[in-house]
Automatic annotation (TrEMBL):
<feature type="domain" description="YcaO">
    <location>
        <begin position="346"/>
        <end position="695"/>
    </location>
</feature>
<dbReference type="InterPro" id="IPR003776">
    <property type="entry name" value="YcaO-like_dom"/>
</dbReference>
<protein>
    <submittedName>
        <fullName>Bacteriocin biosynthesis protein</fullName>
    </submittedName>
</protein>
<dbReference type="Pfam" id="PF02624">
    <property type="entry name" value="YcaO"/>
</dbReference>
Length: 695
């Protein structure tokens, strides 16, 4: 009997215009439409000989065979002798104290097995047990029905068994919150629903043997469930490992998101921690303790947090994390196996610093995701009843850039920044707060929140510039402002290729320099440039040149305290160099225009730093806002702190500041070097540095 390839029965399949989606238990896979014919054949059975038909070239056959082998290695497809075996449903008899959710309607349900497990455990008679294939909203009705006994939910499909803590019939809010976060961690399913698919769950008949082998362990698992601890316990039938996943119970009582986001009043907030490259209200250790419960691929905002293995570059700790993000039917980004998850990295001199940095970067991006309870208004800009900034004001592209974005043959049309020029169409708007005028200002809704389902994204989309997380609104606001200032200084230096002075490393701690030299000294020459401009807050560029190849790498830092700015730049350089072997980047270092602007110039004087350090974060924020106001740049603050996240998140807008991504319609990009005496004449869009700084 010939060997045939089949999609594993652990996956249900969903054909779309883009390709075939495979949905499994806690996993998913996408097969691009170029492989759709072979994917459709895999559903019923495909032999190796089918790949080498007369109508397929040898090259195409080899490519398809390689794809098959990759899918086989990933467990997506399996090899069988003969015909595919169909799952057989068991009689769905229920028992007292045992309920079956709607999600199990089409699945193989070993009800008798689970009755025996429950009756053998200490939970028997004490709790109502609900069996399910998915923790979804259908569970709420079953939990509310059980008035006399709390309900415990057991997900019985797949290789991982889940067990919740007991829920009383009055805990609707807690159940909804848990289901909402689990749903956020399954964006693949949400995307399929947006396409109109009704989801079903594959038959797991093959799991019955594994269940029987682990029956005693499952009984023990139920016996050990902590009835008060807010966790989900998982048990893997394959390796018999248990894991506990924290359920986030944090909530800001009485929190009105739409009011808090648009009406922000800063308060006095004092620096209590000044070590390790920062000005914070509490130590990184304390912040980490608060945020660690948010890490879980099932119940967490953050899927994981792990240290990057950097081999020889081990002196600088690098941590990476990730979060899940949704796509919609009309999303700009096309579906792929990478489109539903976003990675982040943390920087810092110590492990704790780097961990907190990675977690906070993840949260500032996750919290920016559109949730559905944000209330915008729909209007043409010309009919708004408050002052407003348009899409172009916030992302001032040139006419040439707009043309390239909308020319399918041009490479810029494929960039995530690609958009159409806004010409007063009816779109969605949201209020931010002017820090100087203390009044609301309208900005485009799709610049405030990411991953929205709205067609307005064709005029411009959210990006993370100016986003920050902090223990307080003031802490986050200062960090967001510093990021805007850093990107502005980078853009003016890079695109105008202006000569800047060195920043002396003698001002930095010996321990930091020793660590950096351990990371860089053998293979790189490196130095610091002071690229501060008329904003008056120190911005430092750390430049590294590889001795063997001559290629350059960069790190940047910004802070009111110049030593902290330099520390941040140097640490970032070390981390980016250390991580480059593990990560690819759309910025091609080999194409850098190697001019004098990359080198320090002794005959050039640094710009005076007009903003002074204060122990009060509010004082520093207001000083920066006033300085920017003298440059005719208004600072806007959006507070998008989420009610269920124990850390604050904000986005700062400063229309008129430059972005390091090329926004070539901004007059400041060309005028500032002349104003400061760095250039005699302004450059043009054709004479500036032509390499976009997409880093």
């Amino acid at each position: 009997m010939k060997e045939i390839y089949l999609i594993s029965d652990e996956f249900s399949t969903y054909p779309t215009d883009y390709g075939l989606f495979l949905l499994g238990d806690n996993s998913h896979y996408f097969i691009d439409r170029q492989y759709l014919p072979i994917a459709n054949s895999l559903k019923s059975g495909l032999s190796a000989s089918d790949l080498f038909g007369s109508d397929i070239s040898i090259y195409e056959s080899a490519v398809l065979f390689k794809k098959i082998e990759d899918l086989k290695a990933s467990g997506i497809i399996v090899e069988h002798s003969g015909q595919r075996l169909e799952g057989v449903s068991q009689v769905r008899e229920t028992f007292e104290g045992l309920c079956i959710s709607e999600s199990l309607q089409s699945s193989f349900i070993p009800v008798e097995f689970w009755r025996e497990v429950v009756e053998s455990s200490q939970l028997n008679g004490r709790l109502n047990v609900i069996l399910t294939a998915k923790l979804d909203l259908s569970l709420i009705h079953l939990i509310e029905q059980s008035v006399k006994k709390p309900s415990i939910v057991i997900k019985i499909t797949g290789k991982d068994i889940w067990v919740t803590r007991p829920f009383a019939h009055t805990e609707r809010q807690n159940v909804e919150a848990l289901i909402s976060q689990i749903s956020a961690n399954t964006p693949f399913e949400g995307y399929l629903k947006s396409l109109g698919h009704d989801l079903y769950y594959a038959s797991y008949k093959s799991n019955l043997d594994l269940l029987k082998e682990n029956k005693a362990r499952l009984v023990s698992l139920l016996n050990c469930i902590d009835l008060k601890e807010d966790i989900i316990t998982t048990f893997c039938l394959v390796n018999t490992k248990e894991a506990k996943h924290n359920v986030n119970t944090f909530i800001r009582q009485g929190y009105d998101f739409n009011k808090e986001s648009s009406h922000v009043e800063l308060t006095d907030c004092f620096v209590n921690y000044k070590h390790d490259c920062g000005t914070r209200v509490q130590s990184p250790h304390s912040t980490l303790d608060t945020l660690m419960p948010l890490i879980s691929p099932i119940t967490g905002v953050i899927t994981h947090l792990e240290k990057e293995e950097l081999g020889a570059y081990s002196s600088i700790p690098v941590y990476k994390a990730a979060y899940n993000k949704p796509l919609y039917k009309n999303s700009f980004e096309r579906p792929s196996n990478e489109a539903f998850i976003q990675g982040t990295m943390g920087k810092g001199e110590t492990d704790i610093q780097s961990q907190v940095s990675a977690i906070c970067e993840t949260i500032e991006r996750f919290s920016a995701i559109f949730k559905g309870y944000e209330i915008p208004i729909k209007s043409c800009q010309s009919k708004l009843d408050l002052y407003s900034y348009s899409y172009h004001d916030l992302a001032p592209y040139s006419e040439a850039q707009y043309r390239n974005f909308n020319t399918p043959e041009h490479s810029d049309s494929k960039r995530k920044q690609a958009c159409r020029k806004y010409t007063d169409q009816e779109t969605l708007w949201y209020k931010a707060t002017s820090l100087i005028k203390k009044s609301p200002v309208y900005v485009p809704f799709t610049f405030c929140f990411s991953n929205t389902p709205f067609e307005d994204e064709k005029f411009g989309r959210w990006h993370s510039n100016g986003c920050a997380a902090g223990n307080t609104i003031e802490e986050a606001t200062l960090q967001g402002l510093l990021e805007l200032i850093e990107r502005d200084a980078i853009a003016i230096w890079w695109y105008n290729k202006v000569a800047r002075p060195a920043f002396s490393m003698d001002k930095l701690a010996t321990t930091l320099l020793e660590r950096c030299d351990q990371t860089l000294g053998k293979d790189f020459d490196y130095w610091l440039l002071d690229i501060t401009n008329d904003v008056g807050v120190t911005v430092i560029a750390a430049i590294g040149r590889e001795k063997a190849s001559g290629k350059y790498s960069f790190g940047f830092g910004c802070h009111i305290v110049e030593e902290i700015a330099a520390q941040r730049a140097l640490t970032e350089l070390c981390q980016l160099i250390a991580a480059k072997e593990q990560n690819s980047c759309i910025f091609d270092r080999s194409k850098i225009d190697t001019g004098n602007y990359l080198m320090p110039h002794e005959d050039v004087l640094p710009v005076n730093k007009s903003i002074q350090f204060s122990e009060n974060l509010k004082v520093m924020i207001e000083a920066i806002a006033k300085q920017l106001d003298t440059l005719n740049i208004e600072v806007l603050l959006l507070n998008y702190t989420r009610p269920d996240i124990p850390i604050n998140t904000v986005k700062l807008f400063a229309p008129g500041l430059c972005h390091m991504w090329p926004q070539l319609g901004n007059p400041r990009l060309y005028q500032t070097p002349v104003k400061l005496g760095w250039l005699e004449q302004p450059l043009t869009e054709q004479t500036i540095n032509q390499q976009g700084l997409y880093i």
